[in-house]
Amino acid sequence: MAKKIDDGNFAVGSVRMQIMRLALPMTAAQLINLLYSIVDRMYLGRMAESGSLALTGVGLVLPIISILNSVGGLCGTGGAPLFSIARGRGDDGEAEKIMGNSFSLLMIFGVILTAGIIIFKRPILYAFGASDATYPYASQYLSIYTTGTLFVMTGLGMNPFINAQGAAKRGMLTVALGAVVNIVLDPIFIFTLHMGVRGAALATVIAQGCSAVWVLLYLTGPRSLIRLKLADLRLSARCVGRIISLGLSGFVMNLTNSLIQIVCNKTLSVYGGDLYIGVMTVINAVREIVFMPVSGVNAGATPVMGFNYGAGENGRLRAAIRFSTTVAVSYTLAIWAAIMLAPRFFIGIFSPDPMIIETGVRSMRLYFAMSAFMSLQMSAQVVFVALGKSKQAVFFSLLRKAFIAAPLTLLLPRFFGVDGVFIADTVSQIIGGLACGGTMYFTLYKRLGKETDSLRNVDI
Question: Could you tell me what percent of the chain has a pLDDT over 70?
């Protein structure tokens, strides 16, 4: 008989139920979180006359937003697994220190990034592929969005510490609050008040501010198992080093995503022009949506894996790896079939422009042709992160994007034209997925099996 699941204690009860109990609200939270940028793009794409230019302009800002998110993830994905491992070992004092140092790092990075973007905004946007026609829209959005950088750091970087305590529903409410505010304010600011791109950015900043306040109120309040305290904000070199070392995986993955977006935009501006940058903006939005459940399952599995690793429960750890990987790959195969059969439907969600829809069909099919391999890498990557294996996690983050996709994005268009940009990502997904998944299986999963007597008594 399965033991009763205890909030925050992942060493008891069904492994599947533990993961899904966290994954479902986390998936919902990630879906809601996507609404920040996706709702903006849906509304902006429907602006009279300037909709396509506004959509492309915001697409140029996305790499910068990804960089901000990657810095927040540096502390969140670096600190939260260490937090879970410490809790699994019963060391709550160490867990408090990790959470406090993560928050301090977020604030420091947020101030530096805000100043840097304000000072270098114009050259950055032109370097990322802006034209004279799209720069005004990108500049308007980025100028306002940057004022909320500290809100982004707090909401994104500290919410994993709520989830790591087993309070995934409360973590979901963090982003749900912001998303509702954003959805309500977007049409008011964009259309009613005729603020256009500026209105979309302002609605996002206000929404992120609400989420940040919610996170801080919870982590400093009585419901939090481990509270954020002033005494733990003082930086410790040892603690900071561990957080950054492990967080580099998620940081590098997000940063290389930004790198690819930049390289793609620059290459597309040469081989396809603003129209294809708009197509890539739509494809990125679809990618965020379709891979969101995979990220949600992985997010739910991370604290379960970390806690059981810290507690020495190798059988439960293997069960968690097996379950999360199977779900991720199975789901991705199903969504792949849907995209191949109905690409116009997915493109039409974000833009009614017939040129973007017709041009985007072939590009979308090329881009998603081998997406199942990407889910394999995502699932294997999260195992390395959850277990504190920073070197492996960082290497595979770099391998697919920086070492494979970026060079191919520059090379293949010389032979295949604009199609080469989309083919490059497909090739990187195959190589990256097989390399990361294979390494995880042979160096971790099989070794953990040898260290465990039997899985027969593990309730999965």
Answer: 89
Mean pLDDT score of the chain: 83
DSSP string, 152-170: HHHHHHHHHHHHTTT-HHH
> Which residues lie below 8 Å from residue 237, measured CB to CB, with a gap of 6+?
none
Q: Measuring CA to CA, which residue among 48, 2, 51, 24 is closest to residue 282? A: 51
Please report, for the chain, the start and end positions of each structural domain, with discontinuous segments joined by +. 15-450
Average pLDDT over residues 361-376: 88
- The answer for residues whose C-beta is within 8 angstroms of residue 177's C-beta and 6 or more apart is 207, 210, 211, 214
Lowest pLDDT segment from 88-92, 96-100, 126-130, 296-300: 126-130
DSSP class of 403: I
- Residues 6 or more apart whose Cβ sits within 8 Å of residue 42: 349, 350
* 354/26 Cα distance (integer angstroms): 35
Residues 378, 384, 390, 395: is their CA dihedral positive or negative?
negative
Mean pLDDT over 121-133 rounds to 84
Q: Is the pLDDT of residue 388 over 80?
A: no
Nearest CA-CA partner of 81 in 380, 306, 310: 306
Q: What is the distance between the terminal CA atoms of the chain, rounded to a whole angstrom?
A: 11
Q: Which one-letter DSSP state was computed for residue 275?
A: H
Beta bridge partners of 6: 9
Paired tokens of 104: 């301090």
Task: Compute the distance between CA of residue 155 and CA of residue 54 in angstroms, rounded to an integer.
Answer: 27
| Nearest-angstrom CA–CA distance, 41 and 59 | 8
Using an 8 Å Cβ cutoff, are 410 and 263 in contact? yes
Under the banding of pLDDT at 50, 70 and 90, the label for residue 116 is: very high
Query: What's the token pair of residue 1?
Result: 């008989």
Residue 135 has pLDDT above 80, yes or no: yes
CA distance 323 to 304: 12
pLDDT (0 to 100) of residue 399: 85
Closest CA relative to residue 223, chosen from 167, 157, 172: 167
> Looking at the DSSP assignment, which residues form a beta bridge with residue 9?
6
Q: Would you report the helix, strand and coil content of the chain in percent, each value rounded to 5?
A: 80, 0, 15
Q: How many whole angstroms separate alpha carbon 156 and alpha carbon 19?
A: 21
Model confidence over 394-411: pLDDT tens digits? 788 788 888 888 899 899
Whether 433 shows a pLDDT value over 80: the answer reads yes
Side chain identity at residue 265, one-letter code: N
d(C-alpha 416, C-alpha 271), whole Å: 10
